[in-house]
């Protein structure tokens, strides 16, 4: 990725230089003259314009997206420069790995990276997305207010995925023993055929919700597979073969089918540690759960992109975790009709859990 960004950086600078020489020859000539004569300063007005284009690009890499857009509003030259699609492709590839969350509204179209628009960056960047997203229509505000007046039942969510079983630190155990974060408000419910149990929590000490955890097999088999780094037979799904494109096809096991009909949404815990995850099987299992429900679009999907511990400072080029944008792509989420969100999460500290739960409750109609 670092090598690709370095190559793209050179392409952006060449694009800037060609554009400047073609459309603003007087600026290019002045920039060249300043280089040769090493003048201290051209004039106070347009001083930034007098720098070579590679220096101009370097300065832009230190600016926030809002600052770059403001720079484009200063004159015709900078308006044209900041509209260069290669510039925003560079920013997109540079910054996407550091975004901590992404959802169905803010996911950039990765298939358009050869010619991305400024909007693809602005709608996905966490510091810009709130200003970029459209405001809620008046009828939605009224509906939300009426929902607030009607007491809502306790929402229930089914949680499953390899991140609940493969990590060194158990996310489920940490959730059960974090009273300062999510107090437990109910004792575990009866297990469903030995593969899952339900626990009620309190969000912000006022919103009660239930999480039903579905495990692929019993605890002894899960622990053995985790220690030996082996795959195990998943009892939650029945393998039906492959489709015409060669992708696996699953159907939920009978005990899971009942759960899918009863819950209000789903929490998928993905293993975001580097090199982990089977994209084709995971995506097929998520589709199997969502497609089994008649009106699945009304049931939101929260993906906790989870690692065991807070990543240490990694050397340049080393990966601490799979970025949430790439987790979303791996799981095929952009192709879903459901509302979905991917939230970076750490099992040990539970970082990111509250943000994800808040989104999930809001998507279920709970007034936060």
Short account of what is shown:
By secondary structure, this protein is α/β, with parallel strands linked by helices.
Describe the structure.
- The protein has 368 residues and is of the alpha/beta class.
- The protein folds into two domains: 1-26 and 47-130, Monooxygenase (Up-down Bundle); 152-364, 3-Layer(aba) Sandwich (Rossmann fold).
- The protein is 41% helix and 15% strand.
- It contains 15 helices and nine strands.
- It has helices at 2-23, 25-37, 53-61, 65-72, 76-82, 85-95, 118-124, 129-132, 138-149, 171-176, 219-228, 254-262, 279-292, 324-330, 353-363; strands at residues 101-103, 156-160, 196-203, 207-214, 237-242, 248-252, 265-271, 301-307, 340-346.
- Strands 1-9-8-7-2-4-3 form a seven-stranded mixed beta sheet, sandwiched between helices.
- β5 and β6 form a beta hairpin.
- α1 packs antiparallel against α6.
- The longest helix has 22 residues, at 2-23.
- It is elongated, with a radius of gyration of 25 Å.
- The two termini are 39 Å apart.
- It comes from Xiphophorus couchianus.
- It holds the Pfam family F-box-like.
What general outline do the C-alpha atoms trace?
Answer: elongated
Tell me the name of the CATH class of the largest domain.
Alpha Beta
CATH architecture of the largest domain: 3-Layer(aba) Sandwich
Rg estimate, integer Å: 25 Å
As for the CATH topology of the largest domain, it is Rossmann fold
**Average pLDDT reading:** 80
Q: Tell me the domain tally.
A: 2
Report the sheet with the most strands, covering strand number, pairing sense and barrel closure: 7 strands, mixed
Q: How many extended strands?
A: 9
Order of helical and strand elements: HHHHHHEHHHEHEEHEEHEHEHEH
Q: For the largest sheet, list the strands in their spatial order.
A: 1-9-8-7-2-4-3
Structural class estimated from helices and strands: alpha/beta
Give the CA-CA distance, first to last residue. Answer: 39 Å
Please report the number of helical segments.
15
What's the CATH superfamily of the largest domain, by name? P-loop containing nucleotide triphosphate hydrolases
